[in-house]
């Protein structure tokens, strides 16, 4: 079993839609949770970071962590064509040095 | 520089050749990571440096893979006797370590796309 599982999609939504992206993880020791956005032929860029259960909001983006269910989500409100990219979840535990990434979900926002 | 720089951006090599991939991290960043990203997959951890010390190399897939960071800044990932399964994008990321590794965002380069023929 992989440390983190993510539905690869692809996901296609109309402009203005609310997008929900999700990951599950296997180890309750994981403490830090991140979402990265990766455009084609580019490196990942950090969107959101959190270390506690609950919600964290930044503009149109909301990261949600449910440690009891080992489930993390990213919500994108009022989605824009410029949001079209691959979204990667990542997790980290202080007991190691490794960040574990999901496989990524490919999102296309149609104008 | 302003960000993490990787070179070359593209590398084509014949099976059996050796290749060397370079990473220039953000100035002052203590931590440096190498990842391998296969098509349609997320980045997979290869190795981690703190300054010049290689603290974790558990993700290196075989002894053909070797990484170094001799002066604690620029890092080189070397692959010897390349195989077709080595074809992937190799990403480098750097970060500070203030407050712990998990507390600091990783800044990624745009990667080196390696194709082995």
What does this 3D model show about the protein?
The complex is a heterodimer of chains A (111) and B (117). By secondary structure, chain A is an all-beta fold. Chain A has no helices and 11 strands. In chain A, strands 2, 4, 5, 9, 10 and 11 form a 6-stranded mixed β-sheet that branches. A 5-stranded antiparallel β-sheet of chain A has the order 1-3-8-7-6, with no helix packed on it. In chain A, a hairpin with a 6-residue loop joins strand 4 and strand 5. The mean pLDDT of chain A is 92. Chain B is an all-beta fold. Chain B is built from no helices and 11 strands. The interface between A and B is medium-sized, with 28 and 28 residues.
Task: Supply the helix-strand structural class of chain B.
Answer: mainly beta
Per DSSP E runs of 2 or more residues, the count of β-strands of chain B stands at 11
Query: What Rg of chain B, in angstroms, do the CA atoms define?
Result: 14 Å
> Topology as H/E string of chain A?
EEEEEEEEEEE
- Given as residue ranges, the uncertain stretches of chain A (5+ residues, pLDDT < 50) are none
> Roughly how much helix do the residues of chain A carry, as a percent range?
under 10%
Q: Compute the separation of the termini of chain B in Å.
A: 33 Å
Order of helices and strands of chain B: EEEEEEEEEEE
Query: Roughly what fraction of the amino acids of chain B lie in strands?
Result: over 45%
For the biggest sheet of chain A, the summary is:
6 strands, mixed
Radius of gyration of chain A using CA atoms only = 13 Å
Categorize the overall geometry of chain A: globular
Name the biggest interface. Answer: A-B, 28 and 28 residues
Low-confidence parts of chain B, pLDDT < 50 over ≥5 residues? none
Separation of the first and last Cα atoms of chain A:
38 Å
